[in-house]
Amino acid sequence: MTTRTISIQHITIVSNKSFEDTRSAFEKALGRLDENVFVLLRNGQVDRAMEVLESLPPLVIAGVRDHGILLKVWGQDRKALKYDCGNALTATKMTRHQLSAGLYAPLRVLLRESGEGEVAFEYDRPSDVFGQLGDSNVDAVAKDLDVLIEDTLREVAS
Question: 151: closest CA among 68, 30, 18, 10?
Answer without folding.
Answer: 30
